[in-house]
Amino acid sequence: MTQDDIAKAKARMPRAFSAPLHVRLRRWALWLGFGALFCWCLYDFNFSPMRIWNGLGRLGTVLSFMFPPHIWQTWSEWSDILNGLGETLSMAFMGTVLGAIVAFPLSFLGAKNITRFWPLRLSVRRGFDVIRAFETLILALIFIRAFGLGPLAGILAIAISEIGTFAKLFSEAIENTSKRPVDGVTASGGSRLQQIRFGIMPQVAPVILSILLYNFESNVRSGTILGIVGAGGIGFLLSDRISAYKWDEAWSIIFLIIGMVYIIDWLSGLIRARLIGKSELAR
Q1: Among 4, 13, 257, 263, which residue's beta carbon has the most beta carbons within 10 A?
Q2: Taking the model in full, what pTM does it have?
Q3: Tens digits of per-residue pLDDT, 181-213?
Q4: Alpha carbon distance 257, 87 (integer Å)
């Protein structure tokens, strides 16, 4: 059927190609509700044109301190900055590793092709949801109250938060594996553990590695925010410079954070290309 035939058919039966009345009414109601909610948010949060205009002016003043960037003159100043960057990197690394160590065995309990007993599987899954409901910043404030200021609170906050995230993502990766390698191990007389070791793990290992690398990069940024509330790292120094209106130094710290994240992303790409690429070729 050509386009002309379709156009003629539409002209002969215009109502046959339109949605039913109740569908159109529901669609209009949804759009009206969305528009009303959007307008109410603008009104409630005082998004006035004058406020936006004045804010843009102040933002321009803040951005004007970006260039030229501040360069610290003494080694003691550089030592404080580099130590803060190192603390943030260490917090992200330790939190990611600890979270993955705990989440890895839990992910098998949440995978339907591993755990057949559905009450246990659903309970574990809901536990993942409960853990993910707590924002990392809230966990950091709780651990600061319990363990005091410093990187330990940040490490524990990242680790606990990542347990729920990793366990969910790992279990979904396990569920999406092909059954054929498992059947091959079973036909060879392999046990249940051998089915997981030789049938499932080679399939999910590249996915798990990719998840770990991406979340490590994300946790570096999260570690910066945690430092602002007292969990150690470069965020504390950044918050101190902003509070003192030393915007030139604050922007220099932000540029260093951006550079660190860029380097981590570049190294992660190299690791994925080497390890994940080899795994793909092996399969």
Answers
A1: 257
A2: 0.75
A3: 888 888 888 787 888 888 888 888 888 888 998
A4: 12
Backbone region of residue 189 per phi and psi (left: phi > 0; alpha: psi in -120 to 50; beta: other values): left
Cβ(78)–Cβ(72) under 8 Å? yes
Residue whose pair of structure tokens reads 């559905």 in the numeric block: 118
According to DSSP H, which parts of the chain are helical? 3-12, 21-44, 49-63, 75-109, 118-133, 136-147, 151-175, 180-187, 192-194, 201-228, 234-243, 247-271, 277-282
Peptide bond into 68 cis (omega under 30): yes
In a 3-state reduction of DSSP, which class is residue 74? coil
Q: 166, 164, 162, 153: which is closest to 91 by C-alpha?
A: 153
Contact present, 107 and 139 (Cβ < 8 Å) = no
Residue type, 247: W
Place of tokens 């046959």: 16
What distances in angstroms separate CA 37 from CA 43, 96, 156, one per listed residue? 10, 38, 38
Q: 194-211 burial by CB neighbour count: b if 16+ within 10 A, else e?
A: ebbeebbeebbebbbbbb
